[in-house]
Write a structure and sequence with these properties.
Shape: globular
Helix content: 25-40%
CATH topology of the largest domain: L-2-Hydroxyisocaproate Dehydrogenase, Chain A, domain 2
Bound molecules: lactic acid
Strand content: 15-25%
Order of helices and strands: EHEHEEHEHEHEEEEEHHEEEH
Strand order of the largest sheet: 3-2-1-4-5-6-12-13-14
Length: 319
C-alpha cells in the first residue's frame, strides 16, 4: 500500500509517517514537501526505526508520485498564525491544495484522498465537485473533535478517558455537533449532569482557540498524526466499526453535496458507508448550520480560484 504525504516535512505529515512506520502494515511511505532538506532529515531519521514496524520503506518523493498512490494525504498549509477559526486559512490554503491536486486528481486517479489541510470540510467538498473525485474516495480528517470530546467528558465526570466513547459530527469547526445522547462510559450509556455537560462543552468549544492563543507555531501533530494513521489502518484492514470522518453526503442527515463529519465505514476503496444516527432537533440544526457554513466556503473558494461560484445541494428540505 503506497501512501504519499504532501507536507511530509511538516509536523502532522512527519508525525503521520512515524505512526505509519510503527504500524503492522507493509507500507510504502513517500514524503513530499517544498522543503527537501526537511524531508531528507525526517527520512534519514525514520529509516532507522523501520525495524520496529512492517513498513517496507520510507522515502522522499515528488508530487508526481501521487498519481498511482493508494492513499494521498494532504497536510500542507501556510504557516500557522494567530486566528480564531480554521476557516481563516481558506483562501491562503486554496492555492496550495489546488496546486497539489490539479496534476493528478481526476477520473483516472484510483486512490483515496485523505484531506487534513484546513478548513477540511470545504476542501473535501471542493475536491469532489471541482475535480470529480468520487464521494467515496475523498475523506476529511475530523477525529480530533471526538478525541477532545472524550477527554472533556472524562475530565468532567472524573473517569479515565479510556473508558469514554463519545462522538462529535458535523463541521470541523465552529458548528461541530457533540452527541451527548451517545456517550458511553465503560460500555454503558451515560447521562451527564448539567454541570458536567457545561464543563465538557466548554472544553470542546474552547480547545482550538486556547491552543492557537499559545502562538506555539505548531498544530496538533501528535493527535492528528496518530489519528490519520488509524484511519489508514482502518481503510487497509476494512472495519465494521464506524470512524469519524468528513464525507461528502448524499442526503444523509438531511445534507447533500457537502462534506461534513459523520460516522463512516472505511475500507480499501475509501468510504464503504455512512452510519446515520438519530439526532435531536438541536443537533440537527447545528449539523445543517455547519452544512450552510461549508457551502458558503466552497462558493468562496470557487469564486477565488475559478472566477465562478458553485452551488451544491447542501440541504434537501424534508429529507
Ligand atoms: C485540529 C486541526 C487538525 O483540530 O484542525 O487539531
Amino acid at each position: 500500500m503506497k501512501i504519499v504525504i504532501f507536507g511530509g516535512g511538516g509536523g502532522i505529515g512527519s508525525s503521520l509517517a512515524f505512526n505509519l512506520v510503527r504500524s503492522e502494515l507493509p507500507l510504502e511511505i513517500v514524503l513530499v514537501d517544498s522543503r527537501p532538506h526537511m524531508v531528507t532529515s525526517h527520512v534519514m531519521d525514520l529509516e532507522d526505526v523501520l525495524c520496529y514496524g512492517r513498513a517496507s520503506e520510507v522515502r522522499a518523493g515528488t508530487a508526481e508520485e501521487a498519481a498511482d498512490a493508494d492513499v494521498v494525504v494532504l497536510t500542507a498549509s501556510v504557516p500557522l498564525r494567530l486566528n480564531d477559526s480554521r476557516s481563516s486559512f481558506l483562501l491562503d490554503n486554496a492555492e496550495i491544495v489546488d496546486t497539489i491536486v490539479a496534476p493528478w486528481a481526476g477520473p483516472e486517479f484510483r486512490g483515496v484522498v485523505l484531506m487534513m489541510t484546513n478548513p477540511v470540510d470545504a476542501f473535501v467538498t471542493r475536491l469532489h465537485h471541482h475535480y470529480g473525485l468520487p464521494d467515496t474516495r475523498v475523506i476529511g480528517y475530523t477525529l480530533n473533535d471526538s478525541l477532545r470530546f472524550r477527554f472533556g467528558v472524562a475530565a468532567a465526570v472524573g473517569v479515565s478517558v479510556r473508558s469514554v466513547d463519545a462522538w462529535v459530527i458535523g463541521e470541523h469547526g465552529e458548528h461541530q455537533v457533540p452527541l451527548y445522547g451517545r456517550i458511553k462510559i465503560s460500555g454503558n450509556p451515560a447521562t451527564l449532569t448539567e454541570v458536567q455537560r457545561a464543563s465538557a462543552q466548554q472544553y470542546v468549544d474552547t480547545w482550538y482557540r486556547r491552543h492557537v492563543a499559545l502562538d506555539s507555531g505548531r498544530t496538533s501533530t501528535w493527535s492528528s498524526g496518530l489519528g490519520a494513521a488509524l484511519m489508514i489502518e482502518a481503510m487497509a484492514k476494512g472495519s465494521d466499526e464506524p470512524f469519524p470522518a468528513n464525507v461528502v453526503l448524499g442526503g444523509q442527515y438531511g445534507v447533500r453535496g457537502v462534506g461534513l463529519g459523520v460516522p463512516a465505514l472505511l475500507g480499501a476503496t475509501g468510504v464503504q458507508g455512512v452510519v446515520e444516527w438519530p439526532l435531536t432537533d438541536d443537533e440537527q440544526q447545528r449539523f445543517l448550520a455547519g452544512a450552510t457554513s461549508v457551502e458558503a466556503a466552497v462558493a468562496e473558494l470557487s469564486t477565488h480560484l475559478d472566477g465562478s461560484s458553485v452551488t451544491t445541494l447542501a440541504q434537501q428540505p424534508g429529507v
